[in-house]
Design goal:
By secondary structure, the protein is mainly α. It contains 11 helices and no strands. Helices cover 77% and strands 0% of the residues.
């Protein structure tokens, strides 16, 4: 195994396959973040504002992807979406493919990133006094209007942090993706393939790019000013 050189680093960074894999990672992670915003926000609001039987079970199920081995996530997704299941046959009838597709990659990234989004948004909504929402409702606003006019303006920063956390987690996913969709290759899978086939000098540039992208995400997240509880 030869040590990486600056020349090899620059050569690999210019490689169209590397550029395509990094772009695929970023675009699918962004899609997962948008899905988390759309589907995760109502659930985060429900968990923050409601008490219901089985709430702890729901919270545990949401956090489950953080704990279980990542290949298990990939196998579970393939099992649920198999044509032998009712849901899988429905997807097949709609022409939606999960295995070996960008759709499958997005499903995996959404699944592993959703807990981080919900955790951030739930904390943000819990920091907003309930009395503000009650005042809005007492003035004639419905739940949707109250959310858009009161809750969202105070919680949007937490939502943005949640999206960044979701995308950052999605960018790092490897174990579940390699089960669901080895091809097309996202950056971590390409890095793994090049390491096993050619060694460190060919895989290191991809790792450097991923580290830099992840660093930018977290710098951006820490640049977002969160509202002080006393100012609400």
């Amino acid at each position: 195994m030869t040590a990486p050189t600056i020349e090899r680093l620059l050569e690999t960074v210019k490689d169209p396959e590397v550029i395509a894999s990094v772009w695929l990672s970023m675009s699918t992670a962004a899609t997962a973040g948008i899905l988390a915003l759309i589907l995760g926000t109502p659930l985060a609001y429900l968990l923050a504002r409601s008490q219901f039987p089985g709430k702890r079970l729901v919270e545990s199920l949401i956090d489950l992807p953080i704990m279980i081995p990542h290949p298990v996530i990939g196998i579970s997704i393939l099992t649920v979406t198999s044509p032998n299941t009712l849901f899988g046959s429905f997807l097949e009838s709609c022409g939606i493919e999960i295995m070996g597709s960008k759709t499958g990659i997005v499903c995996v990234l959404f699944f592993v990133g959703l807990p981080f989004y919900i955790s951030a948004v739930k904390a943000g909504i819990e920091s907003i006094p309930v009395r503000l929402e009650k005042v809005s409702r007492s003035l004639g606003a419905n739940k949707a209007q109250t959310f858009l006019r009161v809750t969202f303006p105070l919680a949007w920063r937490h939502m943005l942090v949640g999206i960044i956390m979701c995308m950052a987690r999605a960018l790092s996913e490897f174990g579940a993706v390699i089960i669901v969709a080895y091809h097309p290759m996202i950056a971590p899978v390409l890095m793994y393939e090049r390491f096993t086939a050619y060694g460190l000098s060919w895989s290191q540039p991809v790792a450097v790019i991923l580290i830099l992208v992840s660093l930018l995400f977290f710098i951006g997240m820490r640049a977002i000013p969160l509202p002080d509880k006393d100012s609400i």
